[in-house]
Design a protein that fits this description.
The chain is mainly beta. Helix content is about 5%, strand content about 70%. The chain has 1 helix and 6 strands; from the N terminus they run βαβββββ. β3 and β4 form a beta hairpin. The two termini are about 25 Å apart.
Amino acid sequence: LEIYQGARWPSLYQLFSVYGDPNLQPEEVEGVQISQAFIFSQTHIRFLCGISWTRNLIEYDLQANAYANFARLQNSFCELGLKKNVNDHSIGFSVSEVLTRNQDGLSALR
């Protein structure tokens, strides 16, 4: 189990360029994720799921033609990974899915 919290300050370009906004607030993120790994001989399986919340997301606003803060974003994610050691080589792949919801309740699945 991992619980995290952090912030990302806007870049100088996002603040002061022709598309910038000197009033941008830092992004704030917090979340929780859980992961489990299984190892069977030469095969490794990893499963990861979590959820995160971002406040003041910094994105380019096409309508305003400038960078802006967006109030709230929620990401839910799951990932499954498989790695197999064959001789001296490692072969692997992973599959992931992310569900993103914004403050207006609009969702996107990636």
